[in-house]
């Protein structure tokens, strides 16, 4: 039965992420004290996309906040694949760098898979290397993609044991949908992955106790697609014109998710907002992965953070 004026609990990813960054900072300090190693992250960005520049700046600032080394390599969009591969080889060989992130998307003249697979799997803090995808699939320790890892932390914090729950993931990308499915399967959820060819997506979504939206289409998932009381994780980051027509005409934008938040919040039990939900968790998990990689590089056991 629908409750009148029901409103979902808002999952505060921003606050959770801040706590996680603080915890990573403490663990980083202890690794310096015990092993003399300061965790270091290198971020590589090719080209001038303003949204990418913003993410890269946020990542750099948060990395420093956690007491880590943060190097940013800004390359022109005319950079050749060979030049990029040479930089990665140099970072792979650098003992002070434990994590390497190459910001996606890359310019069209560069083969992204070739670049991602050139990163040493032990430094692949994005978890995009085929070896880390394989480790996740077979349940071995590796590095897990940051966005799905952050979503899982929020879900476990909210719901505790996830076993037996029906999880529907909308989106099958290698960076979000597929690894999210592996993680939830690992938690003994019953997992369904939906995509652009899925039949009757609204009906499928209504079966979900856990609904993860990673589509890249602004506010596509409507309130009446959601089962009452479900937990909704909105991964989408979409820039749309500002609500104010004057500001919109000036080119001002706002960020919305893949879920129609206002109506979904009337039905869901819990929901992540955009902004302030999954996005900040992605950055916090990037730091956690860099710390984990730094520990493994010296044979230390990483502290449990999530
Ligand atoms: N918060 C964060 O930290 C991050 C947010 N994002 C955001 O998450 C979203 C998804 O990103 P990403 O996974 O890279 O996106 P991709 O574009 O790689 O994948 C989108 C997926 O959605 C599916 N899809 C597209 N249209 C529909 C539709 N009408 N019905 C059902 N499924 C559909 C596609 O299906 P098909 O395979 O059939 O084409 C595809 O599997 C984006 O908004 C992105 O900005 C991404 C990374 C990190
Ligand atoms: N190699 C690689 N790894 C990535 O992890 C990667 C990438 N490439 N390319 C781009 C996407 C996108 N992404 C985001 C990370 C944080 C926020 C984030 O912190 N968002 C805030 C602010 C949103 C805003 O206002 O713009 C929030 O949601 O609250 C968003 C998006 C990482 N990505």
TrEMBL record:
<keyword id="KW-0378">Hydrolase</keyword>
<comment type="similarity">
    <text>Belongs to the tetrahydrofolate dehydrogenase/cyclohydrolase family.</text>
</comment>
<comment type="pathway">
    <text>One-carbon metabolism; tetrahydrofolate interconversion.</text>
</comment>
<protein>
    <recommendedName>
        <fullName>Bifunctional protein FolD</fullName>
        <ecNumber>1.5.1.5</ecNumber>
        <ecNumber>3.5.4.9</ecNumber>
    </recommendedName>
</protein>
<keyword id="KW-0521">NADP</keyword>
<keyword id="KW-0368">Histidine biosynthesis</keyword>
<keyword id="KW-0658">Purine biosynthesis</keyword>
<keyword id="KW-0486">Methionine biosynthesis</keyword>
<keyword id="KW-0028">Amino-acid biosynthesis</keyword>
<dbReference type="InterPro" id="IPR020867">
    <property type="entry name" value="THF_DH/CycHdrlase_CS"/>
</dbReference>
<dbReference type="Pfam" id="PF00763">
    <property type="entry name" value="THF_DHG_CYH"/>
</dbReference>
<dbReference type="Pfam" id="PF02882">
    <property type="entry name" value="THF_DHG_CYH_C"/>
</dbReference>
<keyword id="KW-0554">One-carbon metabolism</keyword>
<dbReference type="InterPro" id="IPR000672">
    <property type="entry name" value="THF_DH/CycHdrlase"/>
</dbReference>
<comment type="subunit">
    <text>Homodimer.</text>
</comment>
<dbReference type="InterPro" id="IPR046346">
    <property type="entry name" value="Aminoacid_DH-like_N_sf"/>
</dbReference>
<feature type="binding site">
    <location>
        <position position="237"/>
    </location>
    <ligand>
        <name>NADP(+)</name>
    </ligand>
</feature>
<dbReference type="InterPro" id="IPR036291">
    <property type="entry name" value="NAD(P)-bd_dom_sf"/>
</dbReference>
<feature type="domain" description="Tetrahydrofolate dehydrogenase/cyclohydrolase NAD(P)-binding">
    <location>
        <begin position="145"/>
        <end position="296"/>
    </location>
</feature>
<dbReference type="InterPro" id="IPR020630">
    <property type="entry name" value="THF_DH/CycHdrlase_cat_dom"/>
</dbReference>
<keyword id="KW-0511">Multifunctional enzyme</keyword>
<dbReference type="InterPro" id="IPR020631">
    <property type="entry name" value="THF_DH/CycHdrlase_NAD-bd_dom"/>
</dbReference>
<keyword id="KW-0560">Oxidoreductase</keyword>
<feature type="domain" description="Tetrahydrofolate dehydrogenase/cyclohydrolase catalytic">
    <location>
        <begin position="11"/>
        <end position="126"/>
    </location>
</feature>
<feature type="binding site">
    <location>
        <begin position="171"/>
        <end position="173"/>
    </location>
    <ligand>
        <name>NADP(+)</name>
    </ligand>
</feature>
<comment type="function">
    <text>Catalyzes the oxidation of 5,10-methylenetetrahydrofolate to 5,10-methenyltetrahydrofolate and then the hydrolysis of 5,10-methenyltetrahydrofolate to 10-formyltetrahydrofolate.</text>
</comment>
């Amino acid at each position: 039965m629908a409750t009148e004026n029901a409103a979902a609990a808002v999952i505060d990813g921003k606050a959770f992420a801040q706590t996680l960054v603080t915890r990573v900072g403490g663990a980083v300090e202890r690794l310096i004290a015990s092993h003399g190693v300061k965790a270091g992250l290198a971020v590589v960005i090719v080209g001038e996309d303003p949204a990418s520049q913003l993410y890269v700046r946020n990542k750099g600032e948060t990395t420093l906040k956690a007491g880590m080394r943060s190097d940013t390599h800004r390359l022109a969009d005319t950079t050749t694949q060979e030049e990029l591969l040479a930089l990665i080889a140099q970072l792979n060989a650098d003992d002070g760098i434990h994590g390497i992130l190459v910001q996606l998307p890359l310019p069209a003249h560069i083969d992204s898979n070739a670049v991602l697979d050139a990163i040493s799997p032990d430094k692949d803090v994005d978890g995009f290397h085929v070896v880390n995808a394989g480790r996740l699939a077979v349940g071995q320790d590796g590095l897990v993609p940051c966005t799905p890892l952050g979503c899982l932390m929020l879900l476990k914090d909210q719901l505790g044991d996830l076993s037996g729950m029906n999880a529907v993931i909308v989106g099958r990308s290698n960076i979000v949908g597929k690894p999210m499915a592996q993680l939830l399967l690992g938690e003994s959820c019953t997992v369904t992955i939906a995509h652009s060819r899925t039949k009757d997506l609204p009906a499928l979504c209504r079966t979900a106790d856990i609904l993860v939206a990673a589509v890249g289409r602004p506010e596509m998932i409507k309130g009446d697609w959601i089962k009452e009381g479900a937990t909704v994780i909105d991964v989408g980051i979409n820039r749309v014109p500002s609500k104010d027509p004057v500001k919109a005409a000036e080119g001002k934008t706002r960020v919305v998710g893949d879920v129609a938040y206002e109506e979904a919040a009337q039905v869901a039990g819990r929901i992540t907002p955009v902004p302030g939900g999954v996005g900040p968790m992605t950055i916090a998990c990037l730091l956690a992965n860099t710390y984990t990689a730094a520990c493994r590089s010296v044979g230390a056991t990483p502290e449990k953070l999530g």
